[in-house]
Design a protein that fits this description.
Layout lengths: L1 E4 L2 E7 L2 H14 L8 H15 L4 E4 L2 E2 L3 H14 L6 H16 L2
Antiparallel strand pairs: 1-2, 2-3, 3-4
Helix pairs in contact: 1-2
């Protein structure tokens, strides 16, 4: 499922119905001024909320994913400890995005 955030249609929430509803409530409670802030500020605040509230839904801002810093660091630590066979799909998506950005800036 997909739902645009009621106060800011730059934010799309993906997941099952329960995860979407939980994410919307948490975002509205923690970032009520979301429509008034810039994209860079919004991404940082959303990332902080994802990590502090353990949001399970995927959140996109203007069509681009907002990544969980906590999840990325946890996955990297697993790889360092157990090797590349512990590479998760989540981290692969993050790395693909970073490579895409890097290539498009050249």
């Amino acid at each position: 499922m997909r739902k645009l955030l009621t106060i800011d249609n730059r934010v799309a929430i993906y997941g099952n119905k329960q995860h979407i509803e939980e994410a919307e409530i948490v975002l509205l409670k923690n970032i009520p001024d979301l429509p008034a802030i810039t994209e860079s500020q919004a991404r940082i605040r959303i990332q902080e909320v994802i990590d502090s509230e353990n949001i399970k839904a995927d959140i996109l801002f203007d069509g681009n994913s907002v990544w969980s810093k906590k999840k990325i660091l946890r996955d990297i630590k697993k790889i360092k400890k157990h090797g590349m066979n512990k590479l998760t799909d989540y981290l692969i998506q993050v790395l693909e995005f970073v490579l895409w950005i890097n290539c498009s800036l050249r």
